[in-house]
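2 proteins. here.
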Amino acid sequence: MEIPEKMKDLAVSETGFVFDPYTGASFNTNAVGYAILEALRSGKGRRDIRSHLEDEFEVGEADVDRDIDEFIFLLKDSGVLPPSFNLEDL
């Protein structure tokens, strides 16, 4: 599965402010969310995202997987990612 154009077109600042130009919606995310979002936008899969988060934030695999899954759920819920998006397909 390829990253949707909508995801690529998000305006994202380093402070975690995210703007969706399609809907006009905006939200803020923390450093972990920002790291997940940028990794997704560059086409990285779960393994690469997990490794980066474990190194960057010194957290365990269970916490990282939970954070990734919760953030992807929020992106789907807000319409940034389609409901059919599956990180395992990257």
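next one coming up
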Amino acid sequence: MFGSRRLLSAALIAITTSVVVLSAAPVTIKLATLAPVNTTWHKALLDMGETWNKTTEGRVKLQVYAGGTQGDEASTLRMMRPGVETLQAGLYTSGGLALIDDAFNVMGMPFFFETDEEELAVQTKLTPVLEQRLNAKGFHLLNWGTGGWVQIFSKKPLKTLDDVKGSKLYTSKGDDKMVQWYTRNAFHPVALLPTEIPAQLKLSTGLIDTAPYPPYIALTLQVFRDAKYMLDARLAPLVGATIISNETWKKISPEDQAKVTTAALAMEARARAEGPKQDADSVTAMKARGLEVIVPDAKAAADFRSASAKLVASMRGDMVPADIYDMAVAARDAYRKTKGK
């Protein structure tokens, strides 16, 4: 009997030890993003990964695949699905996130925001709801990301909203609802992969002659050399987020989850702080190399403002769920009231 107890005790110790070893096994997170290699966002992701590795003592590691090397956002999302899981995380634009849940379209509505502060007010208000919707689809929100304001780069001068509508405007391939929305509102969208934009702009008979970009990306990809005009219309802030699959998140201990989250939020703050200067410096650099910035005159600016309300309203219940849209409008307008608008 005594010998049996000793054997049982030894077995329990062995099992317990194996469980401890298993729970301490490193979690390697493979993350994909369209952010070009060596951009500030790519570097911020690498820095975040280094912080994860250091603060968790190697229990959480990050591998970053930048520049769309793993495919477009629709493809990489499929690679994160249960049963596939060749990727565990991604830094996505709001359009990519909308492929998971169309509520995320709310952060990319054209002409909806006027300032970074408005966008932040809406983001803060909607985050709990968007987190819940994302979690229900199998994903955990790590942080938000901002990439400056999207401007309109074109091969010929565009000065009015009608000019923009008459252009061959790039739209993200795979986002059929957005293509349909643009078409219904008298634009001429052309659906392409993001990686196809620079080559098409180089061609005299390219499929597109206009593409929306934050200035920093336009500079990084050198698209301004072919699309030599920038309409200063501040179409929308480029908003995105870093997400991780729930299955992978559960493999990380609560203690390490807290450390991972802290580093992710530090990356979020860094991106928001760097954005305005990054945009301004990029425009200055491109102007020195021949970019012509077109500032709408008073009439064109008024036309943009009056048309924007109708354009945005047409997204309610179609591109953006009605309840999410209404929450966003309420949060934005509440912020504007604090500024006397």
